[in-house]
Design goal:
about 170 residues; alpha/beta; 6-stranded mixed sheet; two-stranded antiparallel sheet; 6 helices; about 25% strand
Length: about 170
């Protein structure tokens, strides 16, 4: 009887405090993609989340140029971090057989899990953004609580969410 009452009170507290799963929103792209995206270069300073998104995209059939290789390519092409995202820099990537340039910015949280991320894919053909994503981790109850830990996603789950959302935009249906 005591355990049932304690469980009911705990469940009520969790319900009152509230929970939210991770959220993802995509940038609506009105124009149809004018070229197929097969090869994607990762921006050099994307961190662990960018690398994990790259792995997920590679697992889905894309050719992914990792951030270290992109950095070496930038040196060879005499491009810095600002120039690479400009139309002239993107055109140099296109000349190397790269279709898109992926930029990932993320923030970590108290539990070493991703808290939020902003993702952008630029076409090397046009320089325009062909996919954009904003991702926010879930939460539940007090930070660090059991409810909170069950609602939050780790690096691999986050990367899979982002990669799947990107694919919806950059791969024809």
């Amino acid at each position: 009887m005591k355990h049932a009452l304690l469980f009911t009170i705990l469940l009520a507290c969790i319900s009152l405090i509230g929970c939210a799963s991770s959220r993802i929103s995509t940038l609506p792209i009105s124009d149809k993609l004018i070229h197929p995206v097969k090869a994607i270069a990762l921006a050099p300073d994307g961190g662990l989340l960018a690398d994990a998104v790259g792995v997920e995209l590679s697992n889905k059939g894309f050719t992914v140029i990792d951030s270290v290789s992109t950095s070496r390519l930038m040196v060879r092409l005499n491009l810095n971090e600002i120039e690479i995202a400009r139309p002239e820099g993107l055109a140099k990537l296109k000349d190397q057989g790269i279709d898109a340039f992926l930029v990932v910015r993320s923030a970590g949280s108290y539990d070493q899990q991703p808290q939020s991320a902003s993702v952008r894919v630029n076409s090397t053909y046009t320089g325009q953004v062909i996919a954009g994503i904003s991702w926010q981790n879930g939460w539940g109850g007090q930070a660090g609580s059991i409810a909170d830990r069950t609602m939050r996603k780790g690096l691999a789950e986050t990367a899979a969410d982002i990669a799947n959302a990107l694919i919806q935009t950059i791969r024809p249906h």
